[in-house]
Amino acid sequence: MSEALRVTVWNEFRHERKSEAVKAVYPDGIHATIAAALGEHGFEVRTATLDEPEHGLTSEVLEATDVLIWWGHVAHGEVQDEIVERVQQRVLAGMGLVVLHSGHFSKIFKRLMGTTCDLKWREGNDRELIWVVAPGHPIAEGLGEMFMLEHEEMYGEHFDIPPPETLVFVSWFSGGEVFRSGCCYTRGAGKIFYFRPGHETLPTYHNPQVQRVIANGVRWAAPTVIERVFGNTPPHVPTEG
Length: 241
Ligand code: ZN
Fold this sequence. Notes:
CATH architecture of one domain: 3-Layer(aba) Sandwich
Oligomer: single chain
Bound molecules: zinc ion
Strand content: 25-35%
Strand order of the largest sheet: 2-1-3-4-9-8-7-5-6
Structural class: alpha/beta
Order of helices and strands: EHHHEHEHEHEEEEEH
CATH topology of one domain: Rossmann fold
């Protein structure tokens, strides 16, 4: 690859400023931890947060973004519809989108999925085993058959999403639940990857395997479609008469 993929890590950045427990795990914000990890994986990374003008997602920023990463939780409703529309249009035009954890309820993910994206959850002390169910898929590259997170929030089925085009991971939790935790979609020219782990009070985004999955997700979701042709068109083969 001649030029590094350009990644924008978006985070609502509210928990980290209000909760000492979250600040202790992510002192500079979840976005900073993810951005640093992706930088080490060789990407050109910038960050954007909710309270910046236009949530940090100006047209210029989005035009210069190959893959957008999304983490949100308590402030989904504060994301302006105009920005959601702008992000959706960029995805349809080919920008990749990686949606993390509680981003399942973000306006952008729900809009792109067209379903409620609701699920079961429990903030307990579950162990999570993340099983690779699509071995050989680029997002599973470098992982074994499974990896474990000692402590995570539980997300359980049913997860109200459209059937994934490719399901890469299935999670098992020590409470007995299972969950489709790595889901691939295409919408227009854009690729979307949903990845489940990442509760804000837990050090999940410091985990090298989680960082690897996000980096793999960025590479997989990177734009590939160069030109699409629509509208009234003459025949490619001359017609008789
Ligand atoms: Zn959570």
